[in-house]
Design a protein that fits this description.
Layout (H helix, E strand, L loop, with lengths): L4 E3 L4 H7 L5 E4 L5 H6 L7 E4 L8 E3 L5 E4 L4 H6 L1 H6 L1 H8 L4 H6 L2 H6 L5 H4 L41 H8 L2 E6 L2 E6 L22 E7 L8 E6 L10 E10 L2 E10 L9 H7 L6 H11 L12 H17 L13
Parallel strand pairs: 1-3, 2-3
Antiparallel strand pairs: 4-5, 5-8, 6-7, 6-8, 9-10, 10-11
Helix pairs in contact: 5-9, 10-11, 11-12
The structure holds flavin-adenine dinucleotide.
């Protein structure tokens, strides 16, 4: 590991001051950053440990939602009774990720900013535009099983690995930040970026900007939801395809729908057109299949991951069926029913 300076501020203003130089990384749970530093992929000159900042609470908001501090561990968030009861989609997505030990250490802010699991990003012997801009993309002519089917660019076909972010996309959460330009509130849809010609930039955060919290609006779709994650192993594996499905039903007719996909693009994937198409229709397979087709419009396989397109179509339909029937995918019993 390369040498770096280390600070552990107790106040947000102090942390932002420490972060005003270049080459700075905030350290939260460290489950991704430290691995990347050990592998010489992340090379910060200064590490600011934010674990003493007052960002560890989950609070009610005036509008009936929840404000989740950036340092709330993934386990605490998943098992918080307010989240379990009012936002079970989020709880379910969190429990589908990583392992119990990792979830104990991983934080809400760090989870959003974890970096891709593209093999070539981690392999310093191969070109990667995300790791080394302008060097090329080894994935395009390499093993593409885990890669994107939507929103990819000639420069990068990596996908975003977070499960939590997929649920947050369906719930239309907002990311609260503070930084050199003051406080900001960023809709989750605008937080992560597609790769375009700057795949090295994963999000719209500015350098030195700190995530302070995530806010959930009041509507949690607690009656009709499912987080369905399909992967090569039943646990401790990233999604090949995942679906966060949420419905509001009135007499078995869809009044509101949200569908977000993980494992298929450089950011959680949504298309409001697919969701609008369901509104006013009976909550059944015909509508779900039509929505899946719209959501996957423009999808393109890279060869070894062509299977993801039909897999995603079936997963969307199944997750919507589970949501409609109020029989969500269990995060513990992973058999798909
Ligand atoms: C073996 C393994 C399996 C995994 N499986 C899954 C899985 O199935 N699904 C899944 O979703 N995840 C999975 N993960 C990833 C895990 O969820 C992330 O590593 C974790 O959520 C990152 O959180 P952290 O607090 O440890 O972040 P850190 O490693 O501390 O930080 C990650 C990044 O976020 C930045 N950062 C952290 N907090 C802030 C903040 N408040 N403001 C600004 N920047 C910040 C850091 O500077 C760094 O760039 C897995 C990880 C491992 C190692």
């Amino acid at each position: 590991m390369r040498p770096f300076s280390y600070q552990r501020p107790t106040g947000i203003a102090e942390a932002l001051r420490d972060a005003s130089g270049g080459g700075v990384r905030f350290l939260a749970g460290g489950t991704n950053l430290v691995d990347l530093m050990r592998a010489d992929i992340e090379r910060p000159t200064a590490v600011i440990d934010i674990n003493r900042l007052p960002l560890g609470e989950i609070e009610e908001t005036a509008s009936g939602g929840l404000r989740i501090g950036a340092l709330v561990p993934n386990s605490d968030l998943a098992y918080d009774s307010r989240v379990e009861v009012r936002f079970p989609l989020l709880s379910s997505a969190l429990l589908a990720g990583a392992s119990a030990q990792l979830r104990n250490a991983a934080t809400t802010g760090g989870n959003l900013l974890q970096r891709t699991r593209c093999y070539y990003f981690y392999d310093l012997a191969t070109p990667c535009n995300k790791r080394d801009p302008g060097s090329g993309c080894a994935a395009k002519s390499g093993l593409t099983r885990i890669h994107a089917i939507l929103g990819a660019s000639p420069h990068c076909i990596a996908v975003h690995p977070s499960d939590m972010a997929v649920a947050l996309a369906a719930l239309e959460a907002e990311v609260l930040t503070t930084g050199p330009s003051g406080d900001r509130r960023i809709g989750i849809a605008d937080f992560h970026r597609l790769p375009g010609d700057t795949p090295q930039v994963d999000t719209n955060l500015e350098p030195g900007e700190l995530i302070t919290a995530i806010e959930l609006p009041a509507e949690g779709f607690a009656d009709h939801y499912s987080y369905l994650k399909l992967r090569d192993r039943l646990s401790y594996a990233f999604a090949l395809v995942s679906v966060a499905a949420a419905l509001r039903l009135e007499d078995d007719v869809v009044a509101e729908a949200r569908i977000a996909l993980g494992g298929v693009a450089h950011k959680p994937w949504r298309n409001p057109e697919a969701e609008r198409l369901l509104v006013g229709r009976p909550a059944g397979r015909d509508g779900f299949d039509a929505a899946a087709r719209v959501l996957l419009e423009g999808s393109e396989g890279q060869g070894a991951n062509d299977f993801k397109i039909p897999l995603a179509r079936r997963a969307i339909v199944r997750a919507l069926e589970q949501a409609a029937a109020a029989t969500p995918q269990s995060p513990t019993d992973k058999r798909i029913r």
